[in-house]
Amino acid sequence: MMIPNLQVALDNNLLSDALRSASVLGNEVDIIEAGTILCLQEGMEAVRCLRALFPEKTIIADTKCADAGSTVAKNCAEAGADWMTVICSATIPTMKAAKDNIEEVQVELYGDWTYEQAQQWLDAGISQAIYHQSRDALLSGETWGEKDLNKIKKLVEMGFRVSVTGGLDKDTLELFKGIDVYTFIAGRSIREAADPVKAAREFKDEIKRIWK
Amino acid sequence: MMIPNLQVALDNNLLSDALRSASVLGNEVDIIEAGTILCLQEGMEAVRCLRALFPEKTIIADTKCADAGSTVAKNCAEAGADWMTVICSATIPTMKAAKDNIEEVQVELYGDWTYEQAQQWLDAGISQAIYHQSRDALLSGETWGEKDLNKIKKLVEMGFRVSVTGGLDKDTLELFKGIDVYTFIAGRSIREAADPVKAAREFKDEIKRIWK
């Protein structure tokens, strides 16, 4: 089993706030994400700035693209993103169009999706998926449960590299023990910690402890 | 039956191109949309500029929001958008969170959705939906058919104000005759016409001819 990556989601409203977090955390994490909120607020300038500051890091534009896959992917790639996200309800032609124009595409799993669809994504050459607890679901009291873990396991068995996100902190990692998670995505739990670097290192240490 | 609105979708890559189209077409149409491509490229500055130029028009931020509904809606409203879009695969808490922070929310119908879900959107106070042929589906040869028209009719019967979009030009309007469409959304067919103002006026004239 591989050691899962740690990804920081920069879901800031302001580019300057995102860059403040990135300057502190960028070298502590494996993957830097320009979050949807940031992309919608600041546009692809946010990705360009992250690429300028971190020329060697994997950078993701979390566009949750639903249509016009080709144009959105070209724009993300031109701005310097390695990967981008598409929403699971996008059509296969949209996903393929995106995939043809950027290195990798990740499918964001929201709402109702089926394993038949997931197989179509694999058949289209897309082998990354992101499993969420949505922020709004968490706010309304939902939490990680057995049904989530079983879905993640099944996706991994199908051949997906699965990123996991939503209300994660180092104390919730144990839940995923024994599952070949590709990446854990953390946002505010490290960005807004009193000591973000310490929080990121503890998160990584806990990943290593559980998955080594 | 009401006369359907005409909405121009500004799906430009550059703010300056979007503003060039808006300056020509803004007063010809009923609703101005900052398209997803434009929002992702230029951020909410695009909405702020459109609001500055058209203080009285209905302006939509086509964010296709999938999560963090409250933050995205606040950001759209602060930038000057009247309405925003959410993706149909967003959870009900996300949609409600968005609705609580902006005047109106429109559900973008992509992929598989059900009338049971649609009823949940209505129950959550969301009564606008956008029915698409996705750009990528159109590129791969799909077109408007009876199944699309039946779905639109059913949504209207349920109580939705339905906007229709995807490869529309004035010659395709006749297809929707007899259906209480709320808004037709046109993009390149008017924006990239040799004479955009003429194209918009012909589109509106054809709407009036069919729906009066």
From TrEMBL, chains A, B:
GO molecular function list: 3-dehydro-L-gulonate-6-phosphate decarboxylase activity; hexulose-6-phosphate synthase activity; orotidine-5'-phosphate decarboxylase activity
Signal peptide: none
Keywords: Carbohydrate metabolism, Lyase, One-carbon metabolism
Superkingdom of origin organism: Bacteria
Coiled coil: none
UniProt entry tagged with the keyword Lyase: yes
Pathway: One-carbon metabolism; formaldehyde assimilation via RuMP pathway; D-fructose 6-phosphate from D-ribulose 5-phosphate and formaldehyde: step 1/2
Organism listed in the record: Jeotgalibaca ciconiae
Lineage of the species this protein comes from: Bacteria, Bacillati, Bacillota, Bacilli, Lactobacillales
Catalytically driven reaction(s): D-ribulose 5-phosphate + formaldehyde = D-arabino-hex-3-ulose 6-phosphate
Pfam families the UniProt entry points to: OMPdecase (PF00215)
Identification of the protein by name: 3-hexulose-6-phosphate synthase
